[in-house]
Amino acid sequence: MEDCGGGVTQPPSGQALAAPLVRNVDGFAAAKASGTKVVMVTAYDTWSARLLADAPVDCLLVGDSAMMVVHGDKDTLGATPELMAMHTRAVVRGAPGKFIVADMPFLAARKGEAHALDCAALLMRAGAHAVKIEGAQGHTHVIRHLVESGIPVMGHLGLTPQWVRRFGGFKVQARAPEDAGQLKEDASALEQAGVFALVLECIPEALATQVTASLSIPTIGIGAGPGCDGQVLVLHDMLGLNPDFRPRFSRRFAEGDALFREGAGRFADAVRKGTFPDKGESF
Ligand code: KIV
């Protein structure tokens, strides 16, 4: 069906929201033009996607952070195209109405255009509306090829976790003037290559603000300060589901870990007291 809308849609009725939600790539440009902040959060499974389906967030990111958050790895390098497609399919099942971006995993954009196309095809066929690719130098031609092939691409600069071994850890990037200059060049190259939005991760606030002002596409920050056009957080950090991980750039908008423990404790208590199951819960 032809879509003549501006790429944004009103949130479900009953929700007190100021801003309409982004629902396609044009919506990202419209959000930047109107000064409306883009809100993105990660999702990895049907259960959380279902809960987020009616939440006033614009966009779900099936991040390769799944490797750390869901699978318990120390970094994201273990993600494969097949695993990302499986998580993407699960998220699409839970939130079919949301704009869903899937991460191209480690090295997927570094083996040439054909390999990148195959990986992107897997993710798009799993239901993603766009893919996200980390970095720029050495593979902007691949990004351009995907865009020209009809695949919307989100860029990602700064602390790109797939480079963690090269960076020597998860550290703030582009503090030195020459690194900041390189990041600005990379951002401009990505815009030229056709990315529709750009994640800026863990870079100085002033740099993120400058990059944001210099681009016509929206920037979505994580640890990049309030000057970005939007913000993204890892769901489990945002909901306080990870008691041992409290990065400075994140904020716990709920105390999910306490809720989990409390629920499990109440269940255990009821079983031991013999109050669960009761007559109504039995056949
Ligand atoms: O994989 C991920 O979750 C990400 C976000 C942190 C931007 O890339």
Task: Name the descriptors.
283 residues, alpha/beta, 8-stranded parallel β-barrel, two-stranded antiparallel sheet, 39% helix, globular, binds 3-methyl-2-oxobutanoic acid
What does this structure look like?
It is a single chain. This protein has helices spanning 25-34, 46-52, 66-69, 81-94, 113-125, 140-148, 164-167, 177-193, 205-214, 235-238, 256-273; strands at 8-9, 21-22, 38-42, 59-62, 99-103, 130-134, 153-158, 197-201, 219-222, 230-233. With 283 residues, it is an alpha/beta fold. The strands form two sheets. Strands 3-4-5-6-7-8-9-10 form an eight-stranded parallel beta barrel, surrounded by six helices. β5, α5 (113-125) and β6 form a beta-alpha-beta unit. α2 (46-52) packs across α4 (81-94), α5 (113-125) packs across α6 (140-148) and α6 (140-148) runs parallel beside α8. The longest helix has 18 residues, at 256-273. It starts with 7 loop residues before the first strand and ends in a 10-residue tail after the last helix. The model is unreliable at 1-6 (pLDDT under 50). The chain binds 3-methyl-2-oxobutanoic acid (KIV). 3-methyl-2-oxobutanoic acid (KIV) is lined by residues 42, 61, 63-65, 103, 199, 201, 222, 232, 234.
